Amino acid sequence: MCRVWVPVSASSSWSAWAEVRHSGVSGQPPKRRGNLFIVSGPSGAGKGTLVKELASRVDDVWVSVSATTRAPRPGEVDGKDYLFVSNERFDELIATGGLLEWAEVHGNRYGTPLAEVQARIADGKQVILEIDPQGAFQVRDQLPETVLIFILAPSKEELMRRLRKRGSETDEQMAVRMATAERELALVGKYDHVVINDDVSRATDEIARIIDDYASTEESQAAHVCDQARDR
Fold first, then answer.
1. Which residue range forms the structural domain that includes residue 208?
2. For the segment 113-165, what is each residue's pLDDT rounded down to a tens digit?
3. Overall number of domains in the chain
4. Is 73 within the bounds of a domain?
5. Exposure of 126 by Cβ count < 10 A (0-12 exposed, 13-18 middle, 19+ buried)?
6. Rounded-to-integer distance, Cα 137 and Cα 182, Å
7. 83 phi, psi to nearest 5 deg
8. How far apart are CA 87 and CA 219, in angstroms?
9. 41, 97, 118, 178: least surrounded by Cβ within 10 Å?
10. What is the CATH number of the domain that holds 168?
C-alpha cells in the first residue's frame, strides 16, 4: 500500500485535503477529484437547460444554488432554483464574507454562497456555477483552477427566438438582454471552453466530456505519485 496526501485543490482558499490510499484493488468505484466549473452565456442560450440535463446524467455533479434579490418567476422554487433573499439579507452576506462572488445583473443582485461550494469540492463533487462573466472572473481571481465554459446559441436570430418564446420579457427587457449578450460575447476568448447549444443532448455530452477531462480520480492521482516515488 502506498499512502500519500493529495490536495483536492492547489488553492489554499479551498483548504481541503484528502488522504488517498492506493492498493491497486478497490471494492468501490474510484472517487473523482473535486472541481469547480462555471457555465456562462447570454440569456436564452440555454444554460439552465444544459445544467439540469448534466446534473441528471453525471452522478457526482452538484449544481450550486445562487442567492438573488430578484422576485421569483412563475414555477421557480425557493432553495431549488434560487435562494430568494431581501436586499438587506444580501448586504449581510456581503459584509460577512458569505459570498464567493456577486454581481448586479439587469438591476438585481446575484451571488454564490461560499461555504457550501467549498464543502462540495472537498467531498469530490464536480461543482457547477451558472453565473455571468462578471461573477466568473471574480471566482477565477480567487480560485485560478476554476474551469470556465461559455454557452452560445447557434445564432443571434435563434437567441432572440428563444427569448421571445419564454414570454417573460417585455420589448424593453428584450433590448436590454440583447445588449448584454453583445457585451458578453466580447469576453468569449477569456473562457477555457465554448459550447454551441444547437442540440441539448449533443451539447450536454460535450460538457460532460469536458468535466471528465478534468475530474481525474483520486485513486489515479495516488497511483501516479506512487509510481514516481518508486522511480526515485
1. 31-64+124-231
2. 998 999 999 999 999 999 989 889 999 998 999 999 999 999 988 888 888 88
3. 1
4. no
5. buried
6. 17
7. -95, 105
8. 45
9. 97
10. 3.40.50.300
